Prior knowledge:
Strand content: 25-35%
Order of helices and strands: EHEEEHEEHEEEEHEHEHEHEHEHEE
Low-confidence stretches: none
Amino acid sequence: MEVPCVRVERDRGEETRRRLADAGLLAAEFEIEVEDGYLYLPVTDAEAVPEDVTVVSRAVGERDTPDTPADLLGFEPTYERLGDIVILDEEDPETAREIAEAVMDSDIPARTVVNRASKVKGELRVRDWEVLVGEGTETVHREYGCEYLLDVAEVYFSPRLATERHRVAEQVESGEHAFDMFAGVGPFVVPFAERGAEVVGVDLNEKAVEYLRENARRNDVAERVTAIQGDVREVAPDYEDWADRVVMNLPHSADEFLDAAVELAGDDCLLHYYDIQHEEDPFGPGEEAIRAAAEPEYEIEVETRHVVRSYAPHELNVCLDVRLTR
C-alpha cells in the first residue's frame, strides 16, 4: 500500500523517528523500511511534516497493530491525545461514554477520557470538561523532545499547534532575547530556551505561569527563563527595546497588544503575529495593524505569510513573520 513516508539517511533515522513520534506524525500501522542507505518512515499527515525533511510516496507493508477504539466500536471515533488524556468533542452523552469505554478497553495508553463541555472562554481561555473515565485532568505532554506538565481544566493548550511551534523554534539562535507575550505553560518558551535564547514568558493565568516555571525546570532551561504573571501591557515597559523576537499567539485579539509588542522590540526584531481572518484576505488585516502600530519608527518587512490551519468554514488561522527594523 502506498503511503506518505519521510525519507532520511540511516544515520539520521532515529533522531527523525523521535521527532515524528513526538509530534504524533508517525503512522504506527505501517512498517518502517530500509533501502539503499535510507529509512522510510510512514507518516499520518504529509502536510504537517516539518519542511526540513523529504516526503515521498512509497509502498510499505502493514504491521500487526493493537486493538484500537475503532476495532471495538465498529466506527472511527474522533479524538485527540494529550499525554495520557484522550479528549472527545461529542454532543451525544451516550456516544461519548461508548467511545470512552472503547478507548480504555483498547491498547491506547490512556489514563483519563474527557469530553469538551464548553468552548474556550474568558480572558484565561480555558474550557469546562466532563471527565468520562479516570480521575484528574493533569498530564505530561511530550512534543519535539520537550515535556510539559499541564492541567487541561486550568490552562489553555492545543496539541494541534506542535508543528507550528517547532517551525518557529527552529529559527531561534543562541544568545537571542525572546519574549512570549501569551506564554501559557511554555510550548514556545521552553524550546526557545533549549536552543540557547534568554526568554521571558508572560501570562495572565497564574496556574499557567506556575506550570511554565515547572516546565522550565523539567527541561533544564530554568536559568534562561523568566516567567511573569500579569497583563503583558503592564510588563512591557520593564523590557522596553529588549526583544530580538516576539511571539503573539493570541489570534482573536493580538491586534490589541501591538503597541506593547512595539515597545518590547529592539532595533531589529522578528515578530510572530497570529491571526484568524476570512480566507479571502487572511493576511491583510494583520499586516495593516502591524504597520499602523510600528511605522514610521520601524521599517516593516513581511518575511513569511503562513497558513497554520483551517479554523472554521472560510476562516484561517495564520501567522505573519514580520521583521521590524528601527
